[in-house]
């Protein structure tokens, strides 16, 4: 790592990441990005309680239900809160299926990273991700979770209250990605000289294009040869998602408005191309292909309303710093 270069990258990224919210602001778990973390966890709870789950996240339901009764209803595997609205139920089910598929994809990514000998993991914008608690990590693995302080506090306190403990060494890094997160990460014990498995799941849509690229630059600068990075790249389908968010508001009184928090820039760089051009070997798949492969195909009549993303992971094979 080159400290001066990293410092310059941080300065550029911090300015790019600043949203219309007040500088230095934070969020409660039921507000803004906290609400999106709860909604994603609710989808994992729905999947886990289903008849043939692709994933097992036994912590999702308690994390969601602890936020209040309306959130607990959102985690209902029968989606009974949409009774009488068949189209809404189908649309919401496809959304839950997608969350299950992407979770499965990134779970497998971490398993492969562990088999490759990587023992340092960084989850960017970790939200209510419970992988540090539920995955089978090789001995000696350290997991660093970066997110808003109140989100990390909520997760840790709820799980501790229910007797859950991390399955490996978990390091909470309570810092906003708009601030100097590389310094906070290193202060928490992260070692740039060790290969790292990074994860940017459910994150890039919340960054403007230049901030996305700066984030990749900083991850690259902090990555030793052999490091890996996994990414979810969005092509947001607003209409179908807006219908789901409106139903959550109208039926449950929940304000989950992802559209207001995300960027929709047509000229943003493609993450796979960016990574390939900066020393990473990339493997990717369209989410609809992965959903079909895992037995959760998107029905033809809902294809225009379903989320479209690319799931990818890449390996840094050369040291080009």
TrEMBL record:
Pfam families: LCM. One of its GO terms (biological process) is methylation. InterPro entries: Ppm1/Ppm2/Tcmp (IPR007213), SAM-dependent_MTases_sf (IPR029063), SAM_mthyl_Trfase_ML2640-like (IPR011610). Keywords: Methyltransferase, S-adenosyl-L-methionine, Transferase. The keyword ATP-binding does not apply. Its EC number is 2.1.1.-. Transmembrane segments: none annotated. The keyword RNA-binding does not apply. GO terms for molecular function: methyltransferase activity. It is an enzyme of class 2 (transferase). Exhibits S-adenosyl-L-methionine-dependent methyltransferase activity. Belongs to the UPF0677 family. This is S-adenosyl-L-methionine-dependent methyltransferase.
């Amino acid at each position: 790592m080159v400290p001066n270069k990293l410092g310059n990258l941080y300065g550029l990224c911090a300015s790019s990441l600043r949203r219309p919210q007040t500088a230095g602001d934070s969020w409660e778990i039921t507000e803004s990005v906290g609400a999106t973390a709860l909604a994603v966890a609710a989808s994992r709870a729905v999947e886990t309680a289903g008849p043939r789950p692709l994933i097992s996240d036994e912590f999702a339901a308690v994390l969601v239900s602890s936020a209040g009764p309306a959130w607990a209803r959102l985690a209902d595997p029968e989606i009974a809160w949409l009774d009488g609205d068949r189209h809404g139920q189908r649309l919401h089910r496809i959304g839950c299926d997608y969350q299950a598929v992407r979770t499965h994809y990134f779970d497998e990514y971490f398993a492969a990273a562990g088999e490759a000998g990587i023992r340092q993991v960084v989850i960017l914008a970790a939200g209510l991700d419970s992988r540090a608690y539920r995955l089978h990590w090789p001995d000696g693995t350290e997991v660093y979770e970066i997110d808003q302080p109140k989100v990390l506090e909520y997760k840790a306190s709820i799980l501790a209250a229910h007797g859950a403990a991390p399955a490996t060494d978990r390091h909470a890094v309570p810092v906003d990605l708009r601030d100097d997160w590389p310094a906070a990460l290193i202060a928490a014990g992260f070692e740039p000289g060790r290969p790292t498995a990074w994860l940017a799941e459910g994150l890039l849509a919340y960054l403007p294009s230049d901030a996305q690229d700066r984030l990749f630059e900083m991850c690259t600068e902090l990555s030793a040869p052999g490091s890996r990075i996994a990414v979810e790249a969005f092509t947001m389908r607003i209409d179908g998602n807006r219908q789901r968010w409106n139903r959550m508001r109208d039926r449950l009184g929940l304000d989950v408005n992802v559209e207001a928090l995300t960027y929709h820039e047509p000229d943003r760089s493609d993450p796979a191309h960016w990574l390939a051009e900066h020393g990473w070997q990339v493997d990717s798949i369209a989410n609809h292909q992965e959903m079909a492969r895992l037995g959760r195909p998107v029905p033809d009549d809902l294809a225009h309303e379903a989320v479209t993303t690319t799931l990818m992971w890449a390996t840094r094979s050369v040291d080009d710093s």
